[in-house]
Amino acid sequence: MAKVSIIGAGMTGSTTAHWLAEREIADVVLVDIIEGMPQGKALDLTEAMPVIGKDAHIFGSNDYADTKGSDIVIITAGLPRKPGMSRDDLLTTNAKIVADVARKTLAQSPDAVFIVLTNPLDVMTYLTWKVTGLPSHRVVGQAGILDSARMRAFVAMETGVSVENIHCYVLGGHGDDMVPLTRHSNIAGVPLNQYLPKEKLDAIVARTRKGGGEIVGLLKKGSAFYAPSAALAQMAEAILKDKHLVVPATSYLDGEYGMHDIFIGVPTVLGRKGVEKVIEYELNDEEMAAFRKSAEHVQSNVAKLTEFGLL
Ligand code: APR
Q1: How far is ligand 1, taken at its centre, from the CA of residue 20, in Å?
Q2: Where in the chain is the domain with CATH 3.90.110.10?
Q3: CATH architecture assignment, domain 2-141
Q4: pLDDT tens for each residue of 40-49
Q5: How confident is the model at residue 80 (pLDDT cuts 50, 70, 90)?
Q6: Is 295 exposed, middle or buried (0-12, 13-18, 19+ CB in 10 A)?
Q7: 144-307 — its CATH code?
């Protein structure tokens, strides 16, 4: 069986292990700095396997040696937001954690594809790429599946149509200036604006942009983890099964959309080697301006990493 190591066995990491084990597509190693916690969660999940009839092996550890030879490394280590915090407020703390994790996992699994989740996501994905020195196609961040899923869920709530028929695409950085593409989104091929009046669509776009904050505000402690981990599992599955699945993901741009040297949310083809291709949508002036604004935000955060000596 393939091997997936998840660094950070907190809410998102352990729930990702749950989704992966349930799909029986990989053995999972959960690593955390907290002693006993990854071991306890892995044992608990192991004891669930007979009930659901799956033969995935889940192992918890505080030692990176146990991640050796992973096909995929997923990084969820770091602090989540508290109410009132933006993802950017986590920048310096999480950069130190992610850089350390990236170095240690690369040493054990030089051939792995790295999927990053820790926030601020676009910057942490860039940092992981820099620290590991890997080819850019082997590093990708998860944000777009989640942001698009939030939009899809809100459209489903409003229309009552099955989520399976609802296709929404959110591009750009994983922040409040993300770019929900209403023009490209549809319900079973019918453009969203034919289903919903403008004010309803605008409200869905606004709620999508603040989707993470809405959950942080409700939970009070910690941030969303079910939907982010489901998205991670979908990406890992696409890679392991070499599906050539098109998903919005945080990928490296080398000229696409006229941008260079940036990781940002774009439609991405995922397969066994990681990112196979970035798809370029035809964006109109307004969409392109919003995408550029979001990219400028990501780049200013990357500049802060340099300024603080973290890159
Ligand atoms: N090495 C390994 N694990 C670490 C390290 C480290 N250096 N530093 C922190 N961790 C672990 C913590 O011990 C914790 O168990 O990372 C885990 C994070 O889990 P949670 O606090 O439950 O946070 P979670 O909700 O999973 O979010 C993790 O994902 O969505 C983002 O903004 C979120 O950046 C945050 C990350």
Answers
A1: 18
A2: 144-307
A3: 3-Layer(aba) Sandwich (3.40)
A4: 999 999 999 9
A5: confident
A6: buried
A7: 3.90.110.10
